[in-house]
Amino acid sequence: MRYIDAFNHFNPKGYFDALLESPAGQKDIGKRVRGIPALYDLDLRRKVVEQFPDYTQVLSLGLPMIDRLWGPDKTPDMAKLANDGLAEVVAGNPKHFAGYSAVVPMNNPAAAAKEAERALKNGANAIQLGTSVNGGPIDGKEYWPLYEVIEKSGRPILLHPARAREMPDYVGEEKSKYEICSVLGWPYETGVTLSRFIFSKIMDTYPNLKVVSHHLGGVIPYLEGRVSHSFDQMGARTSDEDYEGLRKSLKKRPFDYFKDFYADTAIEGVRAPMVCGIEFFGADHVLFASDCPFDKEKGPGYIRSTIAVLESLELTTDAREKICFRNAQAMFGIK
Amino acid sequence: MRYIDAFNHFNPKGYFDALLESPAGQKDIGKRVRGIPALYDLDLRRKVVEQFPDYTQVLSLGLPMIDRLWGPDKTPDMAKLANDGLAEVVAGNPKHFAGYSAVVPMNNPAAAAKEAERALKNGANAIQLGTSVNGGPIDGKEYWPLYEVIEKSGRPILLHPARAREMPDYVGEEKSKYEICSVLGWPYETGVTLSRFIFSKIMDTYPNLKVVSHHLGGVIPYLEGRVSHSFDQMGARTSDEDYEGLRKSLKKRPFDYFKDFYADTAIEGVRAPMVCGIEFFGADHVLFASDCPFDKEKGPGYIRSTIAVLESLELTTDAREKICFRNAQAMFGIK
Fold first, then answer.
1. Which of these, A110, A91, A111, lies nearest to A99 by C-alpha position?
2. Within 10 A of B21 (CB to CB), how many other CB atoms are there?
3. Neighbours of B226 (CB within 10 A)
4. Within an 8 Å CB–CB cutoff, is residue A295 touching chain B?
5. How far apart are CA A303 and CA A293, in angstroms?
6. What is the pLDDT of residue B236?
7. Measured distance CA(A294)–CA(A10) in Å, rounded
8. How many CB pairs lie under 8 A apart between chains A and B?
9. pLDDT tens for each residue of A59-68
10. I need a labelling partner for B236 at 20 to 30 A (CA). Which of A37, A192, B49, B297 fits?
11. Which residues contact B278 (CB under 8 A, 6 or more apart)?
12. What structural domains does chain A harbor?
């Protein structure tokens, strides 16, 4: 079976050097990325890819949240550096890398729309977005020109979780404890951001926008009962906002928008949630992805375990091919 | 098949009157509960129960968060009023109700431990706790005497989500929008609170404490890959806390604690997440529950749909009986 890995992470050299020099790069983020050589060492990364037959990667930057590293004066240049670096790696290694997603300077919304347009014209196969910008939402009107650009391109958004530790676990606390913010908070914020894309009417305004949610939809498929029945009752719990009016003004049932999103298989190689997630989104809306190299082996671990889980599933040949490579071909524009 | 419904909601009369008179009861909470008569009308509630053969309910109060309704001077009396009211309803209707859980005044920790002791001696079959108290955490040392009382009793905690709207969706916002706080935030906070029970070492200190998490574990089963592999790497992302040291000082692997928790089937009658959740916790740790009467029909809807989903699953007779009533019998002390 051919596999196109739709969502995995790599930092091209010029960008990686700049990252390490940034204030955050000299602290936790730097500590984390330095410890995973396949995240920036191209030779090593190629060797990881070569372990798997008929397998290529669509590269995404290490993390899309460049707004955590630099201010809005610098991020436009840094996004360009990252995107051109990824383009070069892909162009130079077509047997390993089938394409790449571009990042945009979300703390500078006008520049974000511009960089998306430039990168997509330059061959980027998707735009990678974090679910928040410096912890704040991404459904505000200042970002709608960006979504218009992406919708027009026909290429998808790759939505990566971004919840910051400054989002505490409970009222009255200053920050999240025990890395709960990333372990649980990331897939939670994925669900939150998908919801906000619906209720802010981004999806009604840009109905052809394709949003691929990392980690198989975050928390959404498991909360199927709630995003259907509970959102159907939106307004019953609230009196200070007209949420019933909002719900009725949407073009579709809230649940139907959730089913229209796309998702990838990057859930660290577990089986029962994979069955649940594929059942929710359907084979037309799921893309194989590994999240390489964030496994314990720092490279091949999740590729191997995710392929093994997919091989263990009872799927029709048609469904399997769509998930493993055909959806990626169509959405990314890859042969 | 016999069914004992482990987690569903009812407000006994005296307590319900007090709730409506409380400041919050005169606003959103009052609006919400008044609209669901089977939540407080005993005759109507009995008729809901009678629709299902060989089916009884273990009653829990409408919501455990009495700290949102009254200050710490009043909640001890209000908890007593609620618990004695539930005891009376159960005693007077043994064919409909197999038992009840008690609430405790969590905004008054010393009184909470005392009321738990009193209610359990008086026959309460469980203690219902919210995942937060006025939005704050429940793993602080002030609550440990309560957990000691509950562990000693052998009866379980029924853990109900409680995330408040004051927990915003993103940094820089004042409150959650679009009821995301309850639709997605509730199962998220369930996962957060289970995590905090582990990492605060409540579970190491009270290893026989049984925690039944409402809504089939919140978000935990779907995040199986993260609560295993990501928590195994706890400490790698953080430099200002010694989370690696904390992880190594735990008696078990973080993942094993999650597997030791219990969960109920109250997920609004959907099938794929049910399979995923039962796979995660195992038949010994799942209890049938409906969340009655919070369905669109305001009573029988989730009972019917949850039974239908369970009947559609391929389970051994042994596993099915455990889930449907035997685990409840053992944990609640019901014949």
1. A91
2. 11
3. 23
4. yes
5. 9
6. 77
7. 10
8. 221
9. 999 999 999 9
10. A192
11. B286, B313, B315, B323
12. 3-220+261-332 (3.20.20.140)
Cβ-proximal residues to A182 (8 Å cutoff; 6+ apart), any chain: A161, A163, A165, B230, B237
b/e burial code for range A297-333 (CB count within 10 A of at least 16 → b): ebbbbbbbbbbebbeeeebeeebbbbbbbbbbbebbe
Per the structure block, which two tokens stand in for A141? 């009107």
| pLDDT of residue A28 exceeding 80 | no
Beta bridge partners, B128, equal B158
Q: Residue A136 has what DSSP assignment?
A: B
Within 258-287 of B, beta carbons closer than 8 Å to A belong to 267-270, 272-273, 275-277, 279-280
Of B133, B193, B188, B225, the residue nearest A192 (C-alpha): B188
Asked if the model's pLDDT at residue B237 lies above 80, the reply is no
**pLDDT score for A70:** 96
Query: Within an 8 Å CB–CB cutoff, is residue A229 touching chain B?
Result: yes
Q: How far apart are CA B131 and CA B163, in angstroms?
A: 7
The pLDDT of residue B181 is: 96
Say what the ipTM of the complex is: 0.97
Q: Which helix (H) or strand (E) holds A266?
A: none
Q: What are the beta bridge partners of residue B97?
A: B57
A57 forms beta bridges with A5, A97
Q: For residue range B113-151, what is the model confidence (pLDDT) as tens digits?
A: 999 999 999 999 999 999 999 999 999 999 999 999 999
Question: Is residue A269 within 8 Å of residue A309, measured between CB atoms?
Answer: yes
Across the interface, of A132, A169, A225, the residue whose CB is closest to B267 is: A225
Q: How confident is the model at residue B37 (pLDDT cuts 50, 70, 90)?
A: very high
Q: Which residues contact B300 (CB under 8 A, 6 or more apart)?
A: B48, B51, B52, B292
- Measure the CA–CA gap between A176 and B189, rounded to whole angstroms: 12
Q: What is the dihedral of CA A47, A51, A54, A58, to 10 degrees?
A: -50
Residue B221, pLDDT score: 98
Indicate yes or no: CB of B243 within 8 angstroms of CB of A135: no
Rounded CA separation B1/A323 (Å): 40
d(C-alpha B105, C-alpha B149), whole Å? 14
Say how far apart CA A185 and CA A166 lie, in whole Å: 11
Q: What is the mean pLDDT of chain B?
A: 96
Task: Please give the pLDDT value at position B132.
Answer: 98
Phi/psi at B8 (nearest 5 deg)? -155, 170
**CA A24 – CA A151 distance, rounded (Å):** 32
Distance from CA of B122 to the nearest CA of A (A): 33
Strand A3-9 and strand A286-287: the pairing is unpaired
State the residue for tokens 């949102």: B68
Indicate the residue of A136, A226, A269 with minimum beta-carbon distance to B268: A226
B50-105 per-position pLDDT tens digit: 999 999 999 999 999 999 999 999 999 999 999 999 999 999 999 999 999 999 99
- List the A262-264 sheet strands across, edge first: A3-9, A55-60, A97-102, A126-130, A157-160, A211-213, A262-264, A286-287
For A274: left if phi > 0, alpha if psi spans -120 to 50, otherwise beta; the answer is alpha
Measured from the Cβ of residue B260, the count of other Cβ atoms closer than 10 Å reads 16
| Residue A276 banded pLDDT, cuts 50, 70, 90 | very high
